[in-house]
TrEMBL record:
This is Cell division protein ZapA. Activator of cell division through the inhibition of FtsZ GTPase activity, therefore promoting FtsZ assembly into bundles of protofilaments necessary for the formation of the division Z ring. It is recruited early at mid-cell but it is not essential for cell division. The lineage of its organism: Bacteria, Bacillati, Bacillota, Bacilli, Bacillales. Homodimer. Interacts with FtsZ. Belongs to the ZapA family. Type 2 subfamily. GO terms for biological process: division septum assembly; FtsZ-dependent cytokinesis; septin ring assembly. GO terms for cellular component: cell division site; cell septum; cytosol; plasma membrane. Its main location: cytoplasm.
Length: 86
């Protein structure tokens, strides 16, 4: 198995600094952190009384919900593609 070089960066999410390590590009990791930060700030607009931990959990729940909807849609499109090829 090939060893991939790990990129390391510091990012700020909702006022806190985190160190990220991954094989993805630094640009990708910054984009992920930026999206999480944006979503937490959006959740805060609708739920200003929640602390950062609860906002983080709410953000995670909403993100997984969106992921599952996209995954389901992708599976539907794959089935439609199979029928068209069939």
């Amino acid at each position: 198995m090939e060893n991939q070089e790990k990129n390391k960066i510091s990012v700020e999410i909702y006022g806190h600094t985190y160190k990220m390590v991954g094989s993805e590009s630094i640009g990708h990791m910054r984009l992920v952190a930026s999206i999480v930060d944006d979503r937490m700030r959006e959740m805060n607009l609708h739920n200003p009384s929640l602390d950062s931990t609860k906002l983080a959990v709410l953000t995670a729940v909403n993100t997984v919900h969106d992921y599952l909807l996209l995954k389901e849609r992708m599976e539907q499109l794959e089935e439609e593609l199979k029928k068209l090829k069939g």
